[in-house]
Design goal:
By secondary structure, the protein is mainly alpha-helical. It is built from four helices and no strands.
């Protein structure tokens, strides 16, 4: 047995820095259809032993027929995958539309309730201003000022309070 006293030097370590990046192209394996083995077997029989399949013409017709069925099946599977992808996209769009519809329905219901509050504020404010004017003409001095200020504030608030429609448009 040889006695090794030193480790040999490696000449090409691969760390010189001149390596090249491989391509980023993804290579997919060929996907066999269920008829692929049958088609290959029939093509082999048609090529090697045409007599066993009824003669040369019949063998070629059978081989071509199976090849056609295999190609049709492959195309149909591709079409099915495309249809499933489109269906998935449409289902995603439908769910997004449903969410948008729910948001818009909520905005409409809040807009109508906000409008009712604005109208109520204007109506109560106008009523209080009318009471304040009536009481001030009848000689009551302190109460009409307080009621008039509250009525004025309610009317101004009802007029200038931002509507929910304007808030939804700005979002």
């Amino acid at each position: 047995m040889a006695d090794i006293t030193s480790v040999p030097e490696v000449e090409d370590t691969g760390s010189s820095g001149d390596q090249q990046e491989s391509s980023t192209e993804l290579i997919l394996p060929k996907q066999d259809t269920p008829f692929e083995p049958i088609t290959e077997a029939i093509n082999g029989l048609a090529a090697s032993n045409t007599r066993s399949m009824g003669g040369e013409a019949t063998a070629r017709l059978i081989a071509a027929d199976f090849q056609h069925m295999t190609n049709t099946l492959r195309e149909t599977k591709g079409d099915l995958k495309e249809a499933q992808r489109e269906l998935s996209e449409k289902q995603t769009e439908l769910s997004e539309c449903r969410v948008d519809k729910a948001i818009l329905n909520e905005r409409v219901s809040s807009a109508s309730s906000g409008r009712h509050l604005r109208n109520l504020s204007i109506a109560v404010g106008t009523f209080l201003l009318g009471i304040a004017i009536d009481h001030s003409q009848n000689g009551i001095e302190t109460l009409p000022w307080f009621v008039g200020i509250v009525g004025f504030i309610l009317v101004i608030t009802g007029w200038f309070w931002p509507s929910p429609e304007a808030q939804n448009v700005s979002r």
